[in-house]
């Protein structure tokens, strides 16, 4: 019990602040999550919807697959504003994404130097390949 308390103090008081100063993204994320766990539900929802709007806008502008998906559904990117609006976006399957990779599923504004090719384990029978933004990895 005492060891756990010391560990928590050292990690939160020394390791995380040092990691943030050194630019280690995970330390910043841990601190942000620790703060957000106490947010009211409406604050969490507002944050999620802000992030959703930015994600949909980015996908519609830079990823051909999603631009066409939204268009076929009669949706402009500005029409997906709330979590409830997600019900209007057609589902996408791995089978649809596989043949479209990488030309139609990769954001055109993500430089090749930041792309890291990855894949799922293939537990459904066939792995799914995708790019991960190297800037998001830490």
Order of helices and strands: HHHHHEE
Give me the Rg, rounded: 19 Å
Give the spatial strand order of the biggest sheet: 1-2
How many H/I helical runs?
5
The backbone outline, from C-alpha atoms, is: extended
Q: Kindly estimate the percentage of residues that lie in beta strands according to DSSP.
A: 5-15%
Overall strand count: 2
Main beta-sheet annotation: 2 strands, antiparallel
Oligomer: single chain
Q: Which regions are unreliable across 5 or more consecutive residues at pLDDT < 50?
A: none
- Helix percentage: 40-55%
Folded structure, characterized:
The structure is a single chain. This protein is mainly alpha-helical and 138 residues long. 49% of the residues lie in helices and 7% in strands. The chain has 5 helices and 2 strands; from the N terminus they run αααααββ. It has helices spanning 2-21, 25-36, 41-62, 64-72, 94-97; strands at residues 115-119, 129-133. The protein has a two-stranded antiparallel ribbon. Helix 1 crosses helix 2 and helix 3 (41-62) packs across helix 4. The radius of gyration is 19 Å and the shape is extended. The model has no long low-confidence stretch (mean pLDDT 88).
Task: Describe the structure concisely for a colleague.
This protein has about 140 residues and is mainly alpha-helical. Helices cover about 50% and strands about 5% of the residues.
Which short descriptors sum up this protein?
mainly alpha, two-stranded antiparallel ribbon, 2 strands, 49% helix, extended
Write the layout of secondary structure elements.
Blueprint (H helix, E strand, L loop, with lengths): L1 H20 L3 H12 L4 H22 L1 H9 L21 H4 L17 E5 L9 E5 L5
Antiparallel strand pairs: 1-2
Helix pairs in contact: 1-2, 3-4
């Amino acid at each position: 019990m005492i060891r756990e308390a010391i560990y928590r103090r050292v990690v939160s008081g020394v390791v995380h602040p040092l990691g943030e100063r050194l630019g280690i993204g995970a330390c910043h994320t841990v601190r942000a999550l620790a703060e957000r766990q106490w947010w009211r539900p409406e604050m969490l929802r507002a944050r999620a919807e802000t992030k959703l709007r930015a994600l949909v806008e980015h996908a519609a502008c830079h990823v051909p697959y999603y631009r066409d998906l939204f268009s076929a559904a009669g949706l402009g990117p500005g029409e997906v504003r709330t979590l409830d609006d997600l019900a209007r976006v057609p589902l996408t399957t791995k089978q649809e994404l596989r043949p479209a990779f990488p030309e139609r599923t990769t954001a055109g504004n993500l430089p090749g130097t930041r792309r890291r090719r990855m894949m799922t384990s293939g537990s459904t029978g066939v792995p799914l390949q995708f790019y991960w933004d190297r800037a998001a990895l830490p």
